[in-house]
Amino acid sequence: MTKKILKICSVALALVTLLSVSGCKGKNEGAQSSTEETKVLEKSGYKLVNGGISEYRILLAENSLENELVAAQELQNFLYEATGATLPILYGNDVAENSPIISIGQTERADAASISVDGLDLNRSGYLMKTVGNSLYIIADEQFEGLGCVYAVYDMLEDCIDYRYYHSDEIHFKETQSVELYKYDDVVTPTFDFRSTWYPVLNDEEHRRRLRYFQFNEEYGWKAHTQTEVIVNKHKYFADHAFGATKTVQNADGSTTEVPDHWFSNMAAQQLCWTAGEELERVAANDLYINIKNNPDKLYFQMGQADNTGFCTCERCEKAKAEWAMNDAGLQINFANNVTKIINEWVKRDYPEGRDVRIVLFAYMGTNVAPVVQNADGKWIAFSEKVKPISNVYFEYAPIYTNYSYTLEDVENEDTYKDLLKWNDFLGEKGRLMLWTYETNFHHFLYQFNNFATFREQLATYAENNVDYIFSQGAALTNQPCFQEMRLFVESQLMWDINQNYTELVNEFMYAFYKDAAPEMLEYYNLIKMRYEQMEVLYGHEFSTIYSDIGSKQIWTVGVVDAISRIFERAYAKIECYKTEDPAMYTKLYERMKEVELTLIYTKLRYYRGDYEQSVINQMVDDFNYYTSKFGIDRVQENGAATQGMFDAYKK
Fold it and tell me: Alpha helices, DSSP H only, in 127-256?
């Protein structure tokens, strides 16, 4: 493994195919060609739409699933928008036997054609799409309400009308009077079956679905740091089971002995004591089971350690680590096994028809190293039988110390990569190890997070190590002015199909979203990337962890700020002609750029307001307040100051 050699150089823009973009001069001057292979589609000989008219019907089963109806409606809507033809949605047997249809779900026509997904491992997002004669059949796993049918429709629309969803107000497709029915015989599963991130903008269900994201916690009852809070609440139990507490037990000979009775790791109750025994385990099981009962439609329930490293160091825990646990991760696994066994008995009793309940532990700060040793074959195996997780105990790997400007295989991420390999060997099957990664700097929400060059490569490594569930945490409760819309598009594309090029996707988005100003927005994007790279080479600083000082004045010098200012001046000049030709387009593009410019405005007000006349300062403060409010950019850092009014004192 060799350290990556950084170079200060211009970033060559990858070539991309650009969708038609109307410009002030009636052409897209920035359009470039694609280096990506074109998908080859074979025509079936039938047309879904011919001359603006369609003979096709969209067919659902009488008892169709929720997502199958959504898929039908999305198909109907976008074909109408593109062609003017309306394909009716019908149910059951409400079609002639040989009439052309697009069948969605396990319809009677699908049954008659002997088409089903039996025996296919489609999970949440996969689908089967098959052309038979003049008809098309789309089916997904019923366990997930046919969700894969929705994604099949989006893929089909990309093929037949060049559909592309960039943002809720930037949806592309070609208008045409003729739409081919292509020959499909595909079983499709994405790189990551579960794909999620966390920004307020994704609270909108339609927007989230069209980007193919899940709500980050939608399959969870409880998620995140639940131990000592909702599971064995320290405010309820600490008084009786504080660190150092004892209880009297009677011995067989009638004598008594004082034994430890603490449930918490220290006097601050930072973590549970995972060797406290059966009484604690039953309390934890009961707390968790209440949530399981209250959330009958949920799959995952997180028994997450508290967000600190204050683990128990009592004699009992230290002895267990030496004898059979190896480390704190081993202690937690054994504790979780015991709790989960109790829960499994209750589930068996209360759900005789069966219910899938998965208990999730963190592999996180202090528990990130699996309790394993290396055998003679070089494989990482359990330290002891007691730390082998039972079948419905899962793990969410959260490598908080990752350096995000390097690949996982790089020496800079040696520990993260080794930990991943150990967990993969230890668990031994796809899906047991879930990923909680990061894509923001929690001290600087208004500055770009430097994972542009490595996002794809890091995800590819996780996929190679049996991860198919990804949660990439963003700023959570606030949006960010950091090309957030571009990130959401590009990252969703790569989570679906890792075999795409990050830079090409970035360029595609920029030209679709910023249109005439795309070259300047790309110039700004690349300047930021090169500035971080330059600072790391020249000064040895790291600007790629989730707590790096990426808002430092050392980075955002007068020269850098002036260079970015000139880029934005040229970008705004590029769209000036829209003021008269297309005022609505002008406003849209102006506000999109203004959102991204908030980083620059914030930096000027924070460091360099003395360089500007008072009237300019007043305008910057007004712009900062207005656009942070408009775009839901509420905080400058995690648990930090609100953006609204933070610079009001500078106005005169």
Answer: 147-161, 205-210, 234-237
Burial class of residue 559 (count of CB atoms within 10 Å of its CB; 0-12, 13-18, 19+): exposed
* Domain topology for 43-182: Chitobiase; domain 2 (3.30.379)
> 246 exposed, middle or buried (CB, 10 Å; 0-12, 13-18, 19+)?
exposed
Residue with tokens 């770009």: 448
Q: Tell me the C-alpha distance between 409 and 417, whole Å.
A: 6
> What's the pLDDT tens digit per position in 183-195?
999 999 999 999 9
Place of tokens 């110039």: 523
CA–centroid distance for 49 within its chain: 36
CA distance 639 to 652: 29
- pLDDT < 50: residue spans in the chain: 1-22, 25-35
Residue type, 555: I
* pLDDT of res. 541: 67
- CA–CA distance, 541 with 335 (Å, rounded to integer): 40
How many other β-carbons are positioned within 10 Å of the β-carbon of residue 361?
A: 22
Report DSSP letters for 472-513, one per residue: EE--SSS--TTTHHHHHHHHHHHHH-SSS-HHHHHHHHHHHH
Tens-digit pLDDT profile for residues 14-31: 323 333 334 574 433 334
Q: What is the pLDDT of residue 18?
A: 34
pLDDT score of 38:
64
Please report the pLDDT score of residue 540 as a whole number. 74
Give CA–CA dist 469/432, Å, rounded.
9
pLDDT at site 175: 98
**Under a CB-based contact definition with an 8 Å cutoff, are residues 311 and 366 in contact?**
yes
pLDDT confidence of residue 539: 81
Side-chain half-sphere exposure of 606, counting CA atoms within 13 A: 19
pLDDT at 538: 86
Q: What is the C-alpha separation between 513 and 507, in angstroms, rounded?
A: 10
Are the CB atoms for 621 and 647 separated by under 8 Å? yes
Residue 354: partners with Cβ closer than 8 Å, 6 or more residues away:
none
Instruction: Write the CB contacts of 352 (distance below 8 Å, at least 6 apart in sequence).
Output: none
Instruction: Count CB atoms within 10 A of the CB of residue 206.
Output: 10
DSSP labels, 211-255: TTPEETTTTBSS-S--BTTTBS-HHHHTTTS-TT-EEEEE-TTS-
Residues in the chain: 652
Q: The dihedral of CA 570, 564, 583, 23: what is its sign? A: positive
The distance between the two most distant Cα atoms of the chain, rounded to a whole number of Å, is 98
Q: Which of 593, 534, 527 lies closest to 560 in space, CA to CA?
A: 527
Torsion angle of the four alpha carbons 314, 315, 318, 319, in this order, in degrees rounded to the nearest 10: -150
Beta bridge partners of 642: 635
Question: Domain coordinates of the chain in residue numbers?
Answer: 43-182, 220-249+256-357
Handedness of CA 507, 588, 195, 128 (dihedral sign): negative
Q: CB burial class (10 A; 0-12, 13-18, 19+) of residue 98?
A: exposed
The CA distance from 358 to 219, in Å, is: 10
